[in-house]
């Protein structure tokens, strides 16, 4: 394959890469939202909140994303019709939400008990302590595992090809089926993934370095 | 004994803290076994005792960080229990200083001090800053107002923690081994701030191993052993002429 032809093919991937980014971004957004809510449920002292949180986290982490995606797109047709792209976003969101809930829970529980006690001693309410003292510190601590989860979500978005979302993987396979250049087309998709994950890794490393400075006992 | 003169001008009146038959256990472990303790306004009570004797638990019960199973705690004539309404508002009358400072690492020194003023006392930021500056001045930390806790020494952290508690204008200050986590050369600056507070007439309950401080500042020394008050009296009585065998054994170890 000449360089010219390679570049021609390379260019045709741009809309597919954009689709990958979009479903990943909205999937993560939804996942972070679910993650925060279910992390707070999970650490709550009320059983009627911890129980659904445990169930959600357990079921989602115990079953494959591909199955979850198919269930939403194909399995629900008799109840609700959800289009390909929203299905992919919902599946990515629900799936990552379970992992992100555990990340937030771990971060919240890693904050020294003395922080809560100091806030309580000042006369703050439990809600104020959570909002002003615990969560800001927990978010900081959650950034490294969160960025790791984002990278996983980006790669997992390739599963959306199974329900016909025209993202990087599906695009490369469709091209290959007409030009018989499977190796080349998959390699181009790989380059796109690598560039995107490298950018994410670069920023997460920088943030992590910055955060380490202020992470002393106070 | 220059500081002792402060005791003479201390107000007469009702007790600031009244504790009656306070008992607390963790599972089967009995940590407090029927504590009775009165603290008068402006009194400085120092609690000594071996590790694990329940000193921290007692302080934490007074601040309702721990829930006692039995007994009552009365603060300024109001009996408070864990079921009391607005427990968080009662807590603001009682300042607490911890062994490990527990400053908020994501806030500057000044924001640590004014957090309670803004969140609990609902002060405006300007008002809070003014009071915050006065508090930092009092503990000699004005020049560090805008730095983060990670950037200052342990002694400075503890002085900021004291300023944070004082900003709430508490009626009682509780100190749980405030100098135990400090390098020896930093202990003095914290004790100095505490002495000033005592002279000003703050009601204080202090758990400490600093016998010099206890001798100089305490109106009363309490020796605790296995969840009970075994002996109490003036510093002279307890340190120089302890009556109880266990007090004697403890003091011979520590001095
Ligand atoms: N949260 C807790 N759970 C179980 N046991 C505890 C807890 N806190 C303290 N204890 C136990 O209670 C006893 C008294 O502890 P503490 O009040 O901290 O003693 P001191 O401050 O005098 O060293 C110790 O035996 C300690 O292990
Ligand atoms: Mg202790």
Describe this structure in words.
The complex is a heterodimer of chains A (218) and B (255). Chain A has 218 residues and is mainly alpha-helical. Chain A has helices at 3-12, 14-43, 47-61, 65-75, 84-110, 113-121, 126-156, 168-179, 182-212. Chain A has a single domain (3-217), classed as MetI-like (MetI-like fold), CATH 1.10.3720.10. Chain A is built from nine helices and no strands. In chain A, helix 6 (113-121) packs antiparallel against helix 7 (126-156). The longest helix of chain A is centred in the middle third of the chain and has 31 residues, at 126-156. The longest helix of chain B has 16 residues, at 184-199. The two termini of chain B are 20 Å apart. Chain B is α/β, with parallel strands linked by helices. Chain B has helices at 5-8, 55-62, 87-91, 109-119, 125-138, 154-167, 184-199, 211-217, 235-240, 245-254; strands at 17-26, 29-39, 44-49, 70-75, 78-80, 94-97, 172-176, 203-207, 220-225, 228-233. Residues 4-12 of chain B have low confidence and may be disordered. In chain B, the strands form two sheets. Chain B has a six-stranded mixed β-sheet, sandwiched between helices. A four-stranded antiparallel β-sheet of chain B has the order 2-1-4-5, with helices on one face. At the A-B interface, helix 6 and helix 7 of A face helix 3, strand 6, helix 4 and helix 6 of B. Adenosine-5'-diphosphate binds at residues 26, 29, 31, 49, 51-57 of chain B.
């Amino acid at each position: 394959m000449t360089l010219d032809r390679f570049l021609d093919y390379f260019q045709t991937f741009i809309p597919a890469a954009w689709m990958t980014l979009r479903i990943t971004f909205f999937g993560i957004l939804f996942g972070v939202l679910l993650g925060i809510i279910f992390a707070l449920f999970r650490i709550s002292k009320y059983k009627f909140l911890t129980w659904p949180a445990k169930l959600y986290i357990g079921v989602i982490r115990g079953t494959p994303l591909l199955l979850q995606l198919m269930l939403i797109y194909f399995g629900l047709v008799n109840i609700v019709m959800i289009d390909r792209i929203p299905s992919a976003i919902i599946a990515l969101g629900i799936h990552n939400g379970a992992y992100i809930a555990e990340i937030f829970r771990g971060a919240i529980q890693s904050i020294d008990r003395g922080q809560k006690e100091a806030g309580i001693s000042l006369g703050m309410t439990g809600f104020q302590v959570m909002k002003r003292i615990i969560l800001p510190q927990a978010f900081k601590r959650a950034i490294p595992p969160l960025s790791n989860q984002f990278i996983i979500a980006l790669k997992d978005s390739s599963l959306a090809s199974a329900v016909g979302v025209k993202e990087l993987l599906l695009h490369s396979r469709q091209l290959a089926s007409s030009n018989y250049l499977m190796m080349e087309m998959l390699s181009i998709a790989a380059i796109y993934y690598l560039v995107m994950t490298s950018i994410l890794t670069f920023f997460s490393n920088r943030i992590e370095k910055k955060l380490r400075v202020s992470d002393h006992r106070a | 004994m220059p500081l002792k003169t402060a005791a003479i001008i201390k107000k007469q009146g009702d007790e600031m803290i009244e504790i009656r038959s306070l008992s607390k256990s963790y599972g089967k472990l009995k940590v407090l076994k029927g504590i009775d303790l009165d603290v008068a306004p402006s009194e400085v009570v120092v609690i000594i005792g071996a590790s694990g004797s329940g000193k921290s638990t007692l302080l934490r019960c007074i601040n309702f960080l721990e829930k006692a199973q039995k007994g009552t705690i009365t603060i300024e004539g109001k009996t408070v229990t864990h079921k009391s309404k607005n427990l968080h508002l009662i807590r603001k009358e009682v300042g607490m200083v911890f062994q490990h400072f527990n400053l908020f690492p994501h806030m500057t020194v000044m924001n640590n001090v004014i957090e309670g003023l803004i969140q609990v006392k609902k002060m405006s930021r300007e008002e809070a800053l003014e009071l915050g500056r006065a508090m930092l001045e009092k503990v000699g930390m004005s020049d560090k107002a805008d730095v983060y806790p990670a950037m200052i020494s342990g002694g400075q952290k503890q002085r900021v923690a004291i300023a944070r508690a004082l900003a709430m204008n508490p009626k009682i200050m509780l100190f749980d081994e405030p100098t135990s986590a400090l390098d020896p050369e930093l202990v003095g600056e914290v004790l100095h701030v505490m002495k000033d507070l005592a002279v000003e007439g703050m009601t204080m309950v202090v758990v400490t191993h600093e016998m010099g401080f206890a001798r100089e500042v305490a109106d009363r020394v309490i020796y605790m052993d296995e969840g009970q008050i075994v002996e109490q009296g003036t510093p002279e009585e307890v340190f120089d002429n302890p009556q109880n065998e266990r007090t004697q054994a403890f003091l011979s170890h520590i001095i």
